[in-house]
Amino acid sequence: MPFCPTKLRRLRELFGYSHAAVAYSLSIAQSTYCRLETGKSKPDPDQLEAVARFYGLSVGEFLEHDSNQLVELVVSRPIFVKLRKAGGGVTLSDFHEAVL
Questions:
Q1: CA nearest neighbour of 62 among 3, 15, 18, 10
Q2: CA 65 to CA 30: how far, in whole Å?
Q3: DSSP classification of residue 27
Q4: pLDDT attached to residue 88
Q5: Measuring CA to CA, which residue among 66, 62, 65, 97 is closest to residue 82?
Q6: pLDDT digits (tens, 9 = 90+) for 16-43
Q7: Do residues 3 and 63 make contact, with C-beta atoms less than 8 angstroms apart?
Q8: Which residues of the chain are under the pLDDT cut of 50?
Q9: Are 12 and 37 in contact (CB under 8 A)?
Q10: Domains plus CATH for the chain?
């Protein structure tokens, strides 16, 4: 399955992060991230790797699943379930500390 910008939006919204926060975490400009998320630009291999890793996914997982499947995959990960049960809410930083 080719790159689909909808996946970026769905995953970002899952954690309640802003464009600026994700762009900062990926070490890219906010405008670059916005172009990726709107489909005006496609990620280079390094950006694709960084995005996948940011959400605790492999590039293969990111590319082969549609946006709904990706959300289900992320929220079904044991660490996500554990964090959600422990505090009611899961921040992306909590998730990253546990996954990365």
A1: 3
A2: 25
A3: T
A4: 53
A5: 97
A6: 889 998 999 899 999 999 999 999 999 9
A7: yes
A8: 100
A9: yes
A10: 5-99 (1.10.260.40)
